[in-house]
Amino acid sequence: MGNCIFCKIIAGDIPSVKIYEDDLIYAFLDIAPINPGHVLVIPKEHHESASTIPEATAGRMFRIGSRIGIALKRELDYDAYNLHLADGTAAGQVVMHAHLHVVPRGVEDNFHWNWRQLTYADDAARAAVAEKLVRRLADASEIQK
Ligand code: 5GP
Ligand code: ZN
């Protein structure tokens, strides 16, 4: 927390280009955008993982992220936008203060997610994966762990 770059941005100790702010969240231009207008939406409270952000704040992040996406389309003539959140280093998270990327997209912006499409070995393998997840989610005490 003490050394968190995004906490310093919220505090004004590191400059940023503010797009939106309210009691719960802060949104600013990414310093190295995928496309111009790429915005980061962050909770004012320091959370490393999105999983510990209180529901009202997480909901606000998603809602404002969507509003920013629509503003990008209407004001900057983009065709669409991605909402992207990397939770954990292996998922690509570099700054360990949870943040939602709003990435403006154009039909011909020449950017492609490196997406792949694997298959399950068989139906049983797929069912085993689903069964574990469903069992874990059914236990309300497991939320946010
Ligand atoms: P991550 O890879 O953790 O999902 O994304 C971190 C994002 O933060 C990157 O897109 C990076 O460009 C952005 N970023 C890192 N440091 C700064 C900074 O000091 N100011 C701003 N505005 N963005 C930053
Ligand atoms: Zn922080």
Walk me through the structure:
The chain has 145 residues and is an alpha+beta fold. It has one domain: 2-Layer Sandwich (HIT family, subunit A), CATH 3.30.428. The chain has three helices and five strands, in the order αβββαββα. It has a five-stranded antiparallel beta sheet, covered by helices on one side. A hairpin with a 3-residue loop joins β1 and β2. The longest helix has 22 residues. The chain starts with a helix and ends in a 7-residue tail after the last helix. The structure holds guanosine-5'-monophosphate (5GP) and zinc ion. Guanosine-5'-monophosphate binds next to β2. The site of guanosine-5'-monophosphate has 14 residues, from β2.
Number of domains: 1
Q: Count the DSSP helices.
A: 3
Mean pLDDT: 95
Radius of gyration: 18 Å
* Name of the CATH superfamily: HIT-like
Identify the CATH class.
Answer: Alpha Beta
Give the N-to-C terminal Cα separation.
20 Å
CATH topology: HIT family, subunit A
SS-based class: alpha+beta
How much strand content do the residues show? 15-25%
Order of SSEs, N→C? HEEEHEEH
Helix content: 25-40%
What small-molecule ligands were found?
A: guanosine-5'-monophosphate, zinc ion
User: Which term fits the overall shape?
Assistant: globular
Largest sheet: 5 strands, antiparallel
CATH second-level architecture: 2-Layer Sandwich
- The stretches of 5 or more residues where confidence is low (pLDDT under 50) are none
Side by side, the strands of the main sheet go 1-2-3-5-4
